Amino acid sequence: MDGRTTRQRLAVMRALADCEDFVSAQALHNLLVENGIRVGLTTVYRALRDLEASGGADVVRDDAGERLYRTRPADGHRHYLLCRACGRSRPVDSAIVEEWAGRIAASTGYAAMEHTVELTGICTTCQPSGEEGEPPCRLERAPDTQGRARNCVS
Amino acid sequence: MDGRTTRQRLAVMRALADCEDFVSAQALHNLLVENGIRVGLTTVYRALRDLEASGGADVVRDDAGERLYRTRPADGHRHYLLCRACGRSRPVDSAIVEEWAGRIAASTGYAAMEHTVELTGICTTCQPSGEEGEPPCRLERAPDTQGRARNCVS
DNA sequence: TATGGACATGGATTTCATTTTCATCTAGAT
DNA sequence: ATCTAGATGAAAATGAAATCCATGTCCATA
After folding, report:
1. Which helix (H) or strand (E) holds B26?
2. Chain D positions with a protein C-beta closer than 7 Å
3. Does residue B86 form part of some domain?
4. Same domain assignment for residues A118 and A134
5. Angstrom distance (rounded) from CA B97 to CA A99
6. Rounded Cα–Cα distance for residues B44 and B41 (Å)
7. What's this model's pTM, rounded to 2 decimal places?
């Protein structure tokens, strides 16, 4: 499944595992470089793609369609609830959804069914007092490349 | 909700409704132009974005992250099962999933919950005899032979 | 009917994540 | 140590979507 074990691939896997939340390929690449690990952006993209293919990582897309990766926990969880404000994610129990998808597959005769389930919301920590006007902090692409510290603590 | 009612917006809405399946902004633009309706690509993008915002259309993303739009049926269905081979889509009953999402919101305290559910598979018509190798790839409603790669991604 | 300004259009330009290319390097089997 | 399929990465290409901005159009008001 995994290709050859190289310094770079190892580094990517470790960095991703340290994140515990969803990160973009570019963010991860930045992290690596900032930590003095020389890796090409291309390689990070490839490593993540392969990780996804081999089931070692889960992927979601943010509002901009950008791919965000997260190491798949040992228990095999695949579905997450993530906060649109801080970006933090937590696995959710999706057995019900799996069954539901299975039933649909059976009743329609569709083969090779795949499903994507994404839950987003504003976590309790990020909730202002009132409504959802403009949450405190946004995760997405910030004008400056600095403040992203929020994403990953390595 | 909707902006002003212009010739172009009407055309986009009509074309989308005629499709009955998910189409990309560009494919829709091609359709319109090929039918002699002069509309700018920019306008199609905007019309679709606005339609989505006002709940008049549902959106999914294909493997490439491209947005595909479909008119929202009158019954308010929001979730679909679509064939990865021919691109055809059918609404599915997702009440169970809605409930499930609601429960999760309640138990986690997350606010402003949103969910995305996407089901894909190979419909009975597109199923070869054996495995999922290279499905037949139906041409369906996209006239020219260009953008087809989109719909036929396996 | 005229008019002014808010809203809409669309071709061109820009952005930006991701992919491709290709010359070079390396893991790992023999 | 040698060999080679597989891996790397800088640069360039791709392509969807957003943005610009000059121009066009709707519509409430005078």
Report:
1. helix B25-34
2. 6-11, 16-20, 25-27
3. yes
4. yes
5. 10
6. 5
7. 0.82
A57 and A91 share one domain: no
Q: What is the pLDDT of residues A9-35, one digit of tens each?
A: 999 999 999 998 999 999 999 999 999
- Which residue is associated with the tokens 């090779």? A112
**CA–CA distance, A29 with A44 (Å, rounded to integer):** 6
| pLDDT tens readout for residues A92-141 | 998 999 999 999 999 999 999 999 898 999 999 998 764 444 444 434 33
Q: Which of A49, A93, A117 to mutate to test the interface with B (most CBs of B within 10 A)?
A: A117
Q: For chain A, say whether B17 makes contact (Cβ under 8 Å).
A: no
Provide the domain limits for residue A111: 78-143
Is residue A99, in this structure, part of any structural domain at all? yes
Residue B68: closest CA among B54, B93, B84:
B84
Q: Do residue A69 and residue A86 come from a single domain? A: no
Residues A101 and A52 grouped into a single domain: no
- Per the document, the length of chain B is 154
CATH number reported for the structural domain that contains residue A68 in this entry: 1.10.10.10
